[in-house]
Amino acid sequence: MKVKFNPEITLVVCILVFTGIYVFGTLELPPPMEDGSPTQSLYPWIIAGIMVAACCSVLFKRQIWGGKEQVLTWERIKKPIFGTIILGSYIVLFVFAGYWISTSIFSFFVALLFEYERKSKVKALIYSAILGVIVPVIGYLFFKVTFGIRLPEGVWF
């Protein structure tokens, strides 16, 4: 018996599961808004909202209910598995290492996951390293400079 699945939907569902775990963890944080001003816990809520919106967009864009099924092979399932591992690692690392380290590593590996097969290995590494620097800086500018929210430093720091 051959197992059939849609690889894009599998990745999105895995990301949604981890997003659910992430959202459950954010419920333990103080409110994201206090006296009309954003607090430090606004960052996790915005990230969770972006993740849910992106996953829903992919689900409806790919037409989950009528999507094309494919035979399950390692080549087709490795990206969803690695994507789930990267996301889970980010969530755990974020608690311990804080915003800068975890977001840089996460951005690097996500870019590498999606660009490694499209570009040469060297170009993929360079592109991923650049995104590993740019994404956290943009997040810092958005949260710290725009809203004045102190980003989490993690348990280790």
Give short descriptive properties of this protein.
single chain, 157 residues, mainly alpha, 4 helices, 5% strand
Describe the secondary structure blueprint for this structure:
Elements: E1 4-5, H1 7-26, E2 33-34, E3 37-38, H2 42-61, E4 70-71, H3 74-115, H4 121-147
Brief sketch in words of this structure:
By secondary structure, this protein is mainly alpha-helical. It is 69% helix and 5% strand.
What does this structure look like?
The structure is a single chain. The chain starts with a strand and ends in a 10-residue tail after the last helix. It is mainly alpha-helical and 157 residues long. Strand 2 and strand 3 (37-38) form a beta hairpin. It has 4 helices and 4 strands, in the order E-H-E-E-H-E-H-H. A two-stranded antiparallel sheet has the order 1-4. It has helices at residues 7-26, 42-61, 74-115, 121-147, and strands at residues 4-5, 33-34, 37-38, 70-71. The mean pLDDT is 79.
